Amino acid sequence: MKKRGIIIALVIMSIGFAAVATTLTITGTINYGYDTEDFDVYFSEAILDGVVNNELIETNEKKSITFETKDLSTIGDRSILEYRVMNNSKQYDATVTIDCKRVEDDGNVSENQTSKYTEIKSSPEKLTVKAQESRKGTITVELKKVSTEEIDEKFKCSLTVTPTERDQDGDKYIAEDSCKSVAVPNLGDETKLIPVTINDEGTITKVSNDNPDWYDYCNKKWANAVILKSEPSKNYEDNQQIEMNDIEAMFVWIPKYKYRLWNVNVTNPLYNAHSIEIIFDTKDTENIEGVSCETPMTSGNIGSCNNGEYMTHPAFKSFEVDGFWVGKFETGYKNASNAENAIQTNGKSTNIVVKPNEYSWRGANIKTFFEAAKEYNTNLESHMMKNTEWGAVAYLSHSIFGINKEITINNNDQYKTGYAALPTTDQSKMFGEYGDGPEFNTTWNTPNGLTASTTGNITGVYDMSGGSWEYVAAYVSESEKNSSGFSKEELSALSTKFFDVYDEDSEVNGYTKMILGDATGELGPFNYYQDGDKSSRWHNRWYADASNFASQSLPWFFRGGDYKDGVLAGQFYFVWINGANRDHSFRLVLAPQ
Fold first, then answer.
1. pLDDT tens figures, 252-287
2. Average of pLDDT values for 453-476?
3. Domains identified in the chain, total number
4. For residue 346, is it within any domain?
5. Is the Cα dihedral 278, 310, 473, 561 positive or negative?
6. Domain region containing 73
């Protein structure tokens, strides 16, 4: 096997006058004996004297750290560098050892670590960093003797990283194996939700809930269920095909999971779109350094969470459920015969339909949508989709259990559900400057239509890119919300489990105000630039989808983009808005206990 080496150069500590001026230089070599691109160890965090400052990590590869310590003027004064080593490998664990030695004036390394004036210690001397995890270490400089003269001292710390190939029976395969024991889909205490299978042509068949063919998340086959009209044309038995005309709403099961964090501080430039590591698990994560963390659940709060650790997704904690049912399509307006008919400022739960080839219900304010969703089925805890719930579906879509890439936009200019754009390189067509026709888009149950699903097959969720913009139940605290239809008093009286509430200081590019898991700030860093239509926008690092955070002036979130948004749209699109707009819709969610 070939030997490979990576040089790590770190300039770390400078101690000011009044006692000792010290410069600590860390240089090191990573040597490993596996000729593979998978083994990748780097510094993901630098904390100097208790203050997080990742600007100290200088190179694009995050192989070096440069900083100056505070002045040490009294014997016993300390300056502490805390660093976090991330092992981004998938097949290799890493053993990291640290050895610090003093550098003489001639530049040679002294075998004697001790200094007349300072003492340097690393803790621990050896770190075991498992694949896709991180560990924290410290280097401490302590003043042992004062001097009336300015003194320059240097140290070199050698970091050696040794890879260990993971046991195929070990926890490398936890994520892959977890799909065999996903939370059983909860159909509720009544018979409203009917488990079904759907073939690629769109044929829907009733099955029993213990039918092994109902779902298989290991193979991206998500569980589906339907609610029939109050008076269907017939009663259906197991293994009998259900007619689309008898269906009122279609849903997809999102089982509870935890995911591996990669960008808790918003600014991690090493991760653009990547496969999100997911483990299906009904037990909430706890604070175990380097392994997992308790879900913070609040805006602008990362708790004790660090990159590389697992965290239970917050979407499952608000309702304390092992999963939820998400509308398979945007919510349509029942019996609407065209796009204009589906613009209804007033409507009730009886107007809801969730099926393909329906016209999205648009034009109402958020209060109207929220109340219609909440009244749809109280026994199944129906409600308007939250921002964190959108995030849960989006993250699952971009994992080995989903399509694992950006889904195709629904570019149907009549706001019909379940459509998918045909591939094109024509920029005008990418921005939707064309009509509704088979030459430009296809339905959900065609080979091209499947690319608009979160799974890349017919079992997934549709319309998460394009179609109609979708309001989510998420707003900025203490903002004026008159256009939403809600008063502040009404919102305060509602249970917070129905809303994601963001910090009142939120602003358009204030991505640190995210709620971990909501698929906003974790998609950074963000850039502001001009698009092909000559408008300038904020964009995330995940396919450059449009990304405006909510604020006091525009306090509500909407997701997914519009049919005409072209390359700006996607499951990672989020933008600020007021509470009422002609072309905004919403999505229905069920969270049975």
1. 999 999 999 999 999 877 678 989 999 999 999 999
2. 97
3. 1
4. no
5. negative
6. 4-165
